[in-house]
TrEMBL record:
Keyword set includes Nucleotide-binding: yes
Record Pfam families: ABC_tran
Organism classification: unclassified sequences, metagenomes, ecological metagenomes
Keyword Endoplasmic reticulum: no
GO molecular function: ATP binding; ATP hydrolysis activity
Organism annotation: marine sediment metagenome
ABC transporter domain location: 13-181
Classification via CDD domains: ABC_Carb_Monos_I (cd03216)
PANTHER family: CARBOHYDRATE TRANSPORT ATP-BINDING PROTEIN MG119-RELATED, GUANOSINE IMPORT ATP-BINDING PROTEIN NUPO
InterPro entries with a match to the protein in the record: ABC_carbohydrate_import_ATPase, ABC_transporter-like_ATP-bd, P-loop_NTPase
Protein name: ABC transporter domain-containing protein
Length: 181
């Protein structure tokens, strides 16, 4: 069920009683968190406080040990990133999720939900170029990802998310590796 626009008083997403532990580490302990439409939320805390873990649970990268996720007050099951993308939730990770031997265009095409198995290269190139120019994330669509700088690779991650039609954008320190200008 895709996220739709509606009353701002109802959270888009609610996380209730989220607990996640790893061997010898309690990363999240009974966390409650609401995310509202058209708002920017920031999770602040020390390294190892569980911020990324909580967001990876919302994105389906991890499964919580307990708790539930609600989309507009209805329980949903997010067992994988594919489930999250179905619910129009996207995430840019601190670490890259690209195939180094593929071009920028190929990496993005693999991620886009609306492309058929055989995609029109020119169409994808135009979508990449338009968004790259709009947001100042310039990168050559035909460059092999392994040839890009770390900052350029992170720009590809951000472009993938912007092109995925996600309505809820999770950014896990996406600019940490970018140059300050």
């Amino acid at each position: 069920m895709p996220i739709t626009t509606g009353a701002h008083s109802l959270p888009i997403v609610s996380m209730r009683g989220i607990t996640k532990s790893f061997p010898n580490v309690l990363a999240n302990d009974d966390i409650n968190f609401d995310i509202f439409e058209s708002e920017i939320h920031a999770l602040l805390g020390e390294n190892g406080a569980g911020k990324s873990t909580l967001m990876k649970i919302l994105y389906g990268f991890y499964r919580g040990d307990s708790g539930e996720i609600l989309l507009r007050n209805k329980p949903i099951s997010i067992k994988s990133p594919q489930d999250a993308r179905y619910h129009q939730i996207g995430m840019v990770f601190q670490d890259f999720t690209q195939i180094p031997a593929f071009s920028v265009l190929e990496n993005i095409a693999l991620f886009l939900p609306d492309l058929q198995p055989v995609y029109k290269q020119k169409e994808v190139e135009e979508r990449i170029t338009e968004l790259a120019e709009r947001y100042g994330l310039h990168v050559d669509p035909y460059t092999i990802v392994s040839k890009l700088s770390i900052g350029e690779q992170q720009k590809v991650e951000i472009l993938k998310l912007l092109l995925s039609d996600a309505r809820l954008l999770i950014l896990d320190e996406p600019t940490r590796v970018l140059a300050p200008h």
